[in-house]
């Protein structure tokens, strides 16, 4: 059983300022992971930061980035919830949009937890489903183009025959499996349950 946890990065309540909302969101996530662990759920996907969130106020975005770096680094500590539940961490999304310290910390977390056999924790950051689709199509096209160039360069043009041209056309066709293997979430199954911890009733461009 899998659960997709659409954690909105800001949870506002009466008189709650953005920093407090972000911290409340992290606490909600911690509780959700605890419940999933107790229920025996092995795969959890967290929608922690949308690409659209970069449009928020610069100081708020910076606060979230700083908090994210702090929590990623904290996940490597012995008493962290990640270590407690033996979770293997995957970061998924357009990581090039994040700062270098966050990318480095995320990579360290994935390497450090690679041998964990408990819960699989997919953290979607700098992510939207539309961006994931565009990314997968672009990568598929690039791979096909490289393959065509290599094939053309390996033989003389005057030796091409019709059958070879047909085979080349077949190889150039982008199929569903080509796109699937280039999706950010290629290692994760489709979620069975979506939980909006903030109480919102929208998908927010998450795994449509």
Automatic annotation (TrEMBL):
Q: What class of enzyme is it?
A: transferase
The protein's matches in InterPro entries, at most eight in alphabetical order, are given as: UPP_synth-like, UPP_synth-like_sf
What Enzyme Commission number(s) does the record list for this chain? Answer: 2.5.1.-
What are the protein's GO molecular function terms? ditrans,polycis-polyprenyl diphosphate synthase [(2E,6E)-farnesyl diphosphate specific] activity
- Pfam families, from UniProt? Prenyltransf
Q: Which SUPFAM superfamilies match?
A: Undecaprenyl diphosphate synthase
Task: Answer whether the UniProt record assigns the keyword Transferase to this protein.
Answer: yes
Query: Keyword Lipid metabolism, does the record have it?
Result: no
Per the record, the similarity remark reads: Belongs to the UPP synthase family.
**UniProt xrefs under PANTHER family:** DEHYDRODOLICHYL DIPHOSPHATE SYNTHASE COMPLEX SUBUNIT DHDDS, DEHYDRODOLICHYL DIPHOSPHATE SYNTHASE FAMILY MEMBER
Protein name (Swiss-Prot/TrEMBL):
Alkyl transferase
Lineage, broadest ranks = Eukaryota, Viridiplantae, Streptophyta, Embryophyta, Tracheophyta
């Amino acid at each position: 059983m899998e659960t997709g946890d659409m954690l909105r990065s800001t949870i506002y309540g009466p008189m709650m300022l953005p920093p407090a909302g972000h911290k409340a969101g992290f606490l909600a996530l911690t509780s959700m992971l605890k419940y999933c662990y107790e229920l025996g759920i092995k795969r959890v996907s967290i929608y922690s930061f949308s690409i659209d969130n970069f449009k928020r106020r610069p100081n708020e975005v910076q606060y979230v980035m700083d908090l994210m770096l702090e929590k990623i680094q904290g996940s490597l500590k012995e008493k962290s919830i990640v270590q407690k539940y033996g979770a293997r961490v995957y970061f998924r999304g357009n990581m090039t949009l994040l700062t270098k310290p966050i990318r480095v910390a995320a990579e360290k977390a994935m390497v450090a937890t690679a041998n964990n056999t408990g819960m699989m924790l997919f953290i979607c950051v700098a992510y939207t489903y539309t961006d994931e689709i565009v990314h997968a199509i672009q990568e598929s096209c690039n791979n096909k183009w490289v393959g065509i160039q290599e094939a053309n360069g390996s033989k003389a043009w005057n030796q091409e025959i019709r059958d070879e041209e047909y085979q080349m056309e077949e190889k150039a066709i982008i199929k569903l499996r080509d796109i699937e293997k280039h999706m950010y979430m290629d290692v994760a199954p489709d979620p069975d349950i979506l939980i909006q911890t903030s109480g919102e009733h929208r998908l927010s461009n998450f795994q449509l």
